[in-house]
Design goal:
single chain; about 425 residues; alpha+beta; conserved putative lor/sdh protein from methanococcus maripaludis s2 fold; Elongation Factor Tu (Ef-tu), domain 3; 4 domains; 6-stranded antiparallel barrel; 4-stranded antiparallel beta sheet; flat
């Protein structure tokens, strides 16, 4: 009886040991085989941006003609022209067709840039990348509900697609036929434009009496928004000028204007709370949202503070005349006033325990803890220093470390496979 009892005890003990071993193996397998995700630590830059409306000041001479009809512009906006150079032909009639002529000019430009010898030296791969970048820009504009740059980017994408098609099909019969069709379309557009001019009466070809930069759009404010006015700006004169800009008066017979130099100034009123971000004799990066997001450097010449109830006036200067930039009198401008760079770390993976703050990384298959120095806090993330020196036995997060995102029960030395 004792033998049977001892045997039963040994069997029971063996079963218990087997269960313990199985349980241990199960958890070891889970410990080593748990799914996880990592990402390489990379440096991100966060921008502090303030946005306001600003007004443009330039020294410009309005160009007029005795004719007041439709205009055939001979040079693009922003062209530097010489004394005596012809810039436009102004006709007697059909001024109402000007917007249609402008549209025809856009289409003609598209076909001119995507046919014939203009594409011979264009790399197909580089053109496709540019098309992709333009498409991404369009998607971003739509996602943000921003319509300011849609037309420009749509036209740019259309040109790019035409160029890519032309390059790809240049050696094929179908491609040759397509190219011929495009040339016919181009000829048709030019003929339509010429037909409108032929029905618009006598044309006067206008030239400039001095060198400068030609622009086709006028607003009647050219005599008020001068460089001298910007240099002597006060809060009173600023308010007067804003009122003038809100109700401009057209100049009879105006077909364009001539800027004496590339210099222009921009003045904006800002909240006193934002004044701390600005200092004179500093250059700021500004994005003009209504000009397809064109980014330009603006040099802050002076700050006019005014009285206790006045918003400070910032007087910026610039000497850039970008292609396709519309110098509308009032511009929406976003200015970068500060930047902070660091490694992007989601808040929900940051460990705060036992007086330490950091994240877990994976080196090979071994889990290791890395301390972090926070330099910027977003809504759901931190930017942390990417160049903190290891100190007091603490190792800090570095660029390209593999940060672990979604695994629990992490500790130094754990093996993940």
């Amino acid at each position: 009886m004792r033998i049977k009892t001892g045997l039963k005890q040994r069997i029971a003990l063996g079963l218990v040991c087997l269960l313990i071993i199985s349980y241990t193996v199960y958890h070891v397998i889970n410990l080593f085989g748990e799914d996880y995700t990592t990402y390489a630590a990379g440096v991100t830059t966060e921008k502090k941006v303030v946005s306001y409306n600003g007004y443009l000041f330039k020294d410009e001479q309005v160009l007029t003609s005795d004719n007041t009809g439709i205009v055939d512009y001979l040079v693009p906006d922003g062209t530097k022209v010489g004394k005596g150079q012809s810039v436009a032909t102004v006709y007697e009639k059909n001024a109402s067709e000007q917007s249609y002529i402008s549209r025809l000019d856009e289409y003609i430009s598209i076909f001119e840039r995507s046919t014939g010898s203009s594409i011979e030296n264009i790399d197909y791969g580089a053109q496709n990348k540019e098309n992709s970048d333009t498409y991404d820009a369009l998607v971003k504009l739509l996602a943000n509900g921003d319509s300011s740059g849609l037309e420009y980017n749509i036209n740019k994408l259309l040109v790019g697609i035409n160029i890519s098609d032309e390059i790809k099909a240049v050696d094929s019969l179908d491609g040759a036929q397509e190219s011929t069709q495009k040339e016919k379309t181009l000829e048709s557009l030019r003929a339509e434009k010429d037909n409108i001019f032929s029905q618009s009466g006598k044309g006067i070809t206008c030239s400039v009496s001095e060198p400068g930069y030609f622009f086709s759009e006028t607003d009647g404010c050219e005599g008020y928004f001068t460089i001298a006015a910007a240099d002597g700006i006060t809060h009173e004169t600023y308010r007067e000028l804003v009122n003038i800009a809100m109700s401009p008066k057209a100049v009879q017979g105006a077909y364009g204007k001539l800027g004496s130099s590339s210099q222009w100034k921009l003045i904006m009123a800002v909240n006193r709370a934002d004044l701390k971000h600005f200092a004179t004799e500093q250059t700021y990066s500004a994005v003009f949202s209504e000009n397809n997001g064109t980014e330009l450097p603006l040099y802050l010449e002076k700050i006019v503070k005014g009285g206790s109830t006045d918003d400070p006036l910032l007087v910026f200067s610039c000497d850039r005349l970008p292609k396709n930039f519309s110098f509308d009198r009032c511009q929406s401008v976003s200015i970068t006033v500060d930047t902070e760079s660091g490694i992007y770390v989601p808040k929900d993976i940051v460990i705060r325990e036992e007086g330490r703050i950091g994240v877990y990384i994976l080196r090979g298959s071994v889990v290791q803890f890395r301390y972090i120095d926070i330099v910027y806090e977003g809504s759901d993330y931190y930017l942390v220093k990417h160049d903190s020196e290891d100190r007091d036995g603490r190792k800090y997060l570095r660029e390209n470390d593999m940060i672990i995102l979604n695994t629990t029960n992490l500790f130094d030395g754990r093996i993940l496979k």
